Amino acid sequence: MASRPLRTSDIARELGVHVNTIRLYESWGYFSDIPRGTNGYRQFSTLHLEQARLAHLTLSTPYLGDKNLLIDLVKYAAHGDFAQALEQAYRYLAYVRMEITTTEAALEFLERWAVGQIRETTHQKMHIRQAAQYLNVTVDMLRNWERNGLITVPRDSSNGYRLYGPSEFGRIRVIRTLVQSGYSLMAILRMLQQFDAGHTENLHATLEIPREESDVEYIEIIADRWHSTLLELENRAQAIIRQLGSLIEMTHAS
User: Fold this and answer.
1) 80-125 tens-digit pLDDT
2) Residue 73 near residue 34 (C-beta atoms within 8 A)
3) 123, 179, 125, 108: which is closest to 150 by C-alpha?
4) pLDDT tens-digit readout, 183-202
5) What is the mean pLDDT of residues 56-85?
6) Bond preceding residue 62 cis, omega within 30 of 0
7) Domains within the chain, CATH numbers bracketed
8) Using H for helix, E for strand and C for coil, what is the string for 88-128?
9) Keyword Plastid, does the record have it (predicted)?
10) Considering the chain, what is the average pLDDT of its residues?
């Protein structure tokens, strides 16, 4: 005996979302065709439930890169094009893993710098434009990092201009590397305050301490614990692939 069709509210309840979310999923093309009963009500199946589960899993924040890649993934699956859907899913997983590698390299660079293993070869003092060119950053970046308390630059006693030297160069390399890896300035500042207080070991752990959600924007919280977030995103990318596998099995079994 066939199980009764599922209602919009059944799908919403199963996913823990509002019924309007399921209606939006339908309007955005995240479901295969949904038949209607004689009363005009939608008759969802367990296949639709799993398609909704894929959409909810794939498009929940946070995510990396171009959201259109993930939207296309969900739409391909809804239309039964699992080859394209899986290709998109594995592309996304590869992208997340590339970000993890970049971040882990940045954290290793930080730890080596903190214990004095990375030394500058130049002892030349430079004004801000020279320093920016030497370090391949912009003058605005240097001013912004100083304004946010990440670095204090000594001044030339003769004219009051900033003078960057080896100590500043090393610190800026660390800041630049962590910023490029996705960490927020507040997380980097917190870590540098620990370094300045004489703590040189396990500084990466300081970068992973989130602040109170009530005090900051959500995206800043994510950037405070970037490495942990990336590992969670990797797990979610793998879960997306598993969900696609479940949909493929359901389609072949029907």
Assistant:
1) 999 999 999 999 999 999 999 999 999 999 999 999 888 888 889 9
2) no
3) 179
4) 989 989 999 999 999 988 88
5) 95
6) yes
7) 1-60 (1.10.1660.10), 64-254 (1.10.1660.10)
8) HHHHHHHHHHHHHHHHHHHHHHHHHHHCCCCCCCCCCCECH
9) no
10) 90
Provide the token pair at 235. Answer: 């797990």
Please report, as a single letter, which amino acid is at residue 194.
Q
* Interacting residues of 136 by C-beta distance below 8 A, sequence separation 6+: none
Residues 55 and 28: their CA atoms lie apart, in Å, by 11
Element (H, E) at 51: helix 46-59
How far apart CA 89 and CA 70 sit, in angstroms, is 8
Bridge partners of residue 155, in order along the sequence: 162
CA nearest to 233, candidates 76, 94, 52: 94
For residue 131, what are its two tokens? 């320093």
First-to-last C-alpha distance (Å) of the chain: 15
- CB distance 141 to 164 below 8 Å: no
Look at the block and give the residue holding tokens 């003058």: 139
The structure tokens 């924040």 sit at 61
Grade residue 222 by pLDDT with cuts at 50, 70 and 90: low
Which tokens sit at 203? 């500084």
pLDDT in tens, 124-146: 999 999 999 999 999 999 999 99
Q: Spell out the SS3 assignment of 165-226.
A: CHHHHHHHHHHHHHHHHCCCHHHHHHHHHHHHCCCCCCHHHHHCCCCCCCCCCHHHHHHHCH
Q: For residue 156, is pLDDT > 90? A: no
Closest CA to 3 of 42, 66, 45, 32: 45
